[in-house]
Amino acid sequence: MARRSKINLVKGMKDILPDEQNYWNLIKEKVDKIAYNYGFSRLDTPLVEYTDLFKRSIGEETDIVNKEMYSFTTKGGNKLSLRPESTASIVRSYIEHGMLNLPQPVKLYYFGQQFRHDKPQKGRYRQFWQFGFEALGDNDPIIDAQLIAISYFILQELGLDIEIQINSIGDEESRKKYLKVLKQYYNLQKNKLCAACQKRLVKNTLRLLDCKNYKCQELTEEAPQILDYLNEESRDNFMMVLEYLDELDIVYNLNTKIVRGLDYYNKTAWEIGEKGQGGKLLAFGGGGRYDGLASLLGGRETPAVGFAIGVERVIMALHKNKIEIPKIEKPDIYVAQLGSEARKEALKLFEYLRKEDFKAIENMSKKGLRDQLDIAHRKGVKYTLILGQKEINDNTVLIRDMESGVQEIIDINKVKKEIEKRLVKSVTKSIILKTKKKKKIVKKKTKKKKKIVKKKTKKKKK
Ligand code: AMP
Question: Which pTM value belongs to this model?
Answer without folding.
Answer: 0.87
